[in-house]
Amino acid sequence: MEGFEKSVPKVDVIDHDKEIEVQAALPGVKKEDLEISIDIQLLTIKASHKTEKEEKKDEGKYFRREISRGEFQRAVALPDGVDNENVSASFNDGILTVPIPKKRKEQVQEY
């Protein structure tokens, strides 16, 4: 993925009746290179990526190898009232989906 080290994934934050859903486009990222954490009202997505590309010319006179490496960290602020204790995630075809349930009204503490 060209320019990975300079890119930050695009995210959608969707407000459903009973949950907030965060989706992030992470093309070229492997599941084992992905780290997700949530702290109070902040979801953090971290990933690293390494791609090697090799080209050779028939006569053997020309050879080029490019290695692309990169890391990113993206933090997404979440609205009040999310239940950060019961979070799950799925990663399919380069799309990370994190549904975060909302607390029931009686669980939300007023400060």
Describe it.
- With 111 residues, this protein is mostly beta strands.
- Helices cover 0% and strands 52% of the residues.
- A hairpin with a 2-residue loop joins strand 3 and strand 4.
- The protein is elongated and about 75 Å long.
- The N terminus is likely disordered.
Please supply descriptive tags for the structure shown above:
0% helix, 4-stranded antiparallel sheet, 3-stranded antiparallel sheet, 111 residues, mainly beta, elongated, 52% strand
Poorly predicted ranges:
1-5
- Binned, the helix content reads under 10%
Q: What is the end-to-end distance?
A: 46 Å
* Total strands: 7
Class based on secondary structure composition and strand pairing: mainly beta
Rg, Cα atoms, Å: 19 Å
Shape: elongated
Strand content: over 45%
The helix tally amounts to 0
Tell me the major beta sheet: 4 strands, antiparallel
Average pLDDT rating = 82
Q: Strands of the biggest beta sheet: in what spatial order?
A: 1-2-7-6
Q: Provide the succession of SSEs.
A: EEEEEEE
Secondary structure blueprint with pairings:
Layout: E1 11-15, E2 19-25, E3 34-39, E4 42-56, E5 63-77, E6 90-92, E7 95-101
Antiparallel strand pairs: 1-2, 2-7, 3-4, 4-5, 6-7
In short:
By secondary structure, this protein is mostly beta strands. The chain is built from no helices and seven strands. It is 0% helix and 52% strand.
